[in-house]
Amino acid sequence: MSDHNPKSQNRPGPSYVGSKTFMNAPESDPHELPEATDVGIVGVPFDGGASRQPGARYGPEELRRESGWYARNDGGFNAATGRRVDFDGVAVRDCGDVPVVTTDVEATGEGIRKTVRGVAETAFPVVLGGDHYLTYPSFCGVADARGERLGMIHLDAHSDVYGSWDIHGDHWHGSPMNLIDETEYGGYGTHSMVGLRGLEAPDFPEFAAEEGLDVSYAQDVHTEGLGACLERAIEHATDRVESVYLTVDIDVVDPTVAPGTGTPEFGGIDATQLLNGMERLGRCDAICAVDLVEVAPRLDPSRTTQRLGAAALSRFLEAKFGS
After folding, report:
1. What is the pLDDT of residues 37-73, one digit of tens each?
2. Domain total for the chain?
3. Do the Cβ atoms of 237 and 214 come closer than 8 Å?
4. Does residue 182 sit in helix, strand or coil?
5. Of the candidates 206, 226, 275, 286, which lies 20 to 30 Å from 16 by C-alpha distance?
6. Is residue 2 in some structural domain?
7. Where residue 23 sits, what CATH number does that domain have?
C-alpha cells in the first residue's frame, strides 16, 4: 500500500484557531528582524487618504485572518498550479502594524517609510493596506534600503497620478504615483499600469505618451489577455533599473467579484485572472516588494474581497518563495 494516502497526512490546525498574524507567522520587530528572514509583513491600518468610501483601515486585520487558510508548510500539492508547495524553508515574520496618526496623512507616511525601510534592509516586504497613498512612502522606504531607483508595476482601475486637489491636498490616495515621479527614486519611464478603466483627465493618453508611461487599459487586458499585458509591463518596468516594486489595488478586480473596496469600477478582471497574474509576477526576479491595498472588508459582508486578497498574496509568495 502507498505511504502517500492523503487521508493519513498531517495537516495544520484550523485556520480560525491561533495567532492572527499573516499566515500564522511569528511576530518580529521590523527593525530587529533575524538575519535569515525571507519575508516581512507590514500592516497599514489607515484610510485617511481615501476620497470616496472609507474602510480600508480594516484591511490588514482581515487579510491576516483570511491568510490562515494558506498557512501550510507540509509540502501540499496546489491543484490550481500543479505545483508542490513548501514554505518550510521560508522564514516569514509578521512585523505588526505601522503606528498611524488618524488625522495626519503625512505623519503616517513618515511612519510607513521608516517601517518599510527597516524591513527591506533584511527581507522582502509585503505591505497590507490601507488606502493606496501608502504606496508612496512604502516605495520610498524600499528605495532607501536598497539605495537605488526602482521600477513600478501597478495593477489598478485608476492611475493615481492626479496630484494636488483643493479638497484633498497633495497627499491622498489619488496622488501616490505623482509623488513617486517627483522623487529621485522612480519615474513614469519605468512605470507600468495594468487594468485602468476609471474616469481619467481628458488629456491622460497624451500625458502617458509624453511621460513614457506604459498603460494597459482594461479593454487591452480583455482583448490581448492579462498575460500579454503583464509581459509588456515587466519589460517596461525593468528598463534601466534592476529592481521593481509591485502595487496591487484590489479594485483592479471587477466589483461583482470583489465589492469590498472604496472606489469600485465595473469592467475589471476576474478572480482567476488576478491569481494567474500574481503567479506570473511572483516569478519575476526583479520584483523586490509588494503591497495590496484598498481592501475595505466592511463594504463586503460576504468576505469575498479579503479572501481573494489573501489568496492573491499567497499565490504570489508561493511562486516566489514556496516551491
Report:
1. 999 999 999 987 776 788 899 999 999 999 988 876 5
2. 1
3. yes
4. coil
5. 275
6. no
7. 3.40.800.10
